[in-house]
User: What shape does this take?
Amino acid sequence: MPFNHAVQATNQLLDALPPKDCEQLLSKCEHIELNFAEVLCRPGERLTHVYFPTGSFISLVTPVDGKSGLEVALIGNEGMLGHTLMLGVDVAPFHALVQGGGPALRMTAAAFLSELEQSATLQQKLKRYLYVSMSQLAQTAACTRFHVVEARLARWLLMTQDRAHSNYFHVTHVFLAYILGVRRVGITKAANALQKRKLISYQRGNITIIDRAGLEAASCGCYRADKESYARILG
Assistant: This one.
């Protein structure tokens, strides 16, 4: 159902807009429910819609040799999917997979570009978000190359908790191995290490964050760097 009245979007990018701009954008959105494991776009496909998660989150995965993949970003209600349209390219650069089902706002690519053209404030906000996204992509690349699996897993769990807004979520060893680009045995070893330190509880894919402060200490510095980048550029 499209929005036709002033309402808080509960997406940080949209909520940061002036009320008039936010209301105008929301009038072109529809409220949808994203389902776990739903594919929103594939690399090389034309982008037909943009998404603003409100209670869901999306993994951006880049394919490797057509057989496996590596997660390069995670989008929750702090961001959006489809902001690369700002660059004048309507082709998806990543595989966008719903990792956390829930509500989101969706609008057509054409409507988004039209609103972008009319709102200087929206342009400024999304240019800053584009910068943050590029910074976080670079951070992820460095993290994958230089940091051990246990620290990378701790970082991913913190990122997921931030976007799930919950201490509890479900994810399998197979999926974790896929998005972190490591063997399943490596995930099992890392998860067991975090569990022995009583930072998490992990049973049959059900993860509970027990000690967030401890998990932050176990994570590499990339988690803090990402948070600081977002806060510094987008406030």
Q: What stands out?
A: The domain at 148-219 is CATH 1.10.10.10 (Arc Repressor Mutant, subunit A). Strands lie at 30-34, 39-41, 49-53, 57-64, 68-75, 95-100, 102-108, 168-170, 200-203, 206-209. The first helix runs from residue 12 to 15. The chain has two domains: 12-124, 148-219.
